Amino acid sequence: MEDRILIVDDEEAICRLFAERLAQEGYICVTARNGREALRWFLKDPFSLMIADIRMPEMDGVELLKRVKATDPKMMVIVITAHPDIDLAVEAMRLGAYDFIIKPVDLDLLSLSVTRALEKKRLEEEISAYRLHLERLVEERTAKLQEAYRILKKAHLDSVKVLAEAIDAKDPYTRGHSDRVTRMSLKIAFQLGFTEDRLESLEYGALLHDIGKIGIRDEVLQKPTTLDSDEYQYIQEHPLIGVRILEGLDFFKDKIPVIRHHHEHFDGSGYPDGLAGEAIPLEARIVAVPDAFDAMTSSRPHRGMMPLQDVLTELERWKGIQFDPNVVEIFLHEKIYKL
Fold first, then answer.
1. What domains does the chain contain, in order, with CATH numbers?
2. pTM score > 0.90 for this model?
3. Which of 120, 170, 187, 213 is catalytic?
């Protein structure tokens, strides 16, 4: 059966452009100009996927997403957004959107996202079918289930990476920060002998260590001068904001210590809880070093990028005070910073 796609945007030209491109790839496309019209189509006919703008009259994309997911939780939805709507896009991801794409839309990127979403949908349907016949098919299908599980885990990780990119996008001076911190953290953890499961948990935690910055006002995050004491105290709230965002989600419970404690200091002078030494979770002690390194080697509005040697000297100087000495030793000796 051919895949049917519902395209929702209040700009007719955009609907037509998307429909023409996707029709060339064999999809059947239906267009709607607002959320209410789209909901009528959705309730009337079956669709494999929906592409919806966030900002629309009568019913916006977030409300449409809520209603669609309430009717069909497995429905694949890709949201389209402009830069000012980044927080709404993050909310859409939390509500179950598969992906979001920023305007102006790259049609090749849209096509790739549609392909991946439909592949994921088919995989989930296949896994559901496997479960119905599991007793009869255990031996025959084990390898396929494992591969499907691996792909679904990768899709989950990809969704978290999209969320991490959305966090970094709030501050253009830290674009890519979460990814760099994650890669360096995993290298340190590998040197410390972390198991595969523990490495995977650290990867999610490191990617989302700054998720609380979603709740920090842009004018503070992007302030072109040095923060005053009140602003600095305000920005220190982001670890606890991150905890509040994720604490209701079972999957992220074992990642929360990284998010809460990555600004604790080894001597107990950090925040939010003033933990010291090994009372700070090891994963948080690991993330703290790449986090500080990347901050110092990134250009900021109120200062330029610090020279590498100066940054390495700072890490050495604050070893045992701000940072776990063992983590710093691995970071410097193994040249972890050379990604």
1. 4-115 (3.40.50.2300), 170-333 (1.10.3210.10)
2. no
3. 213
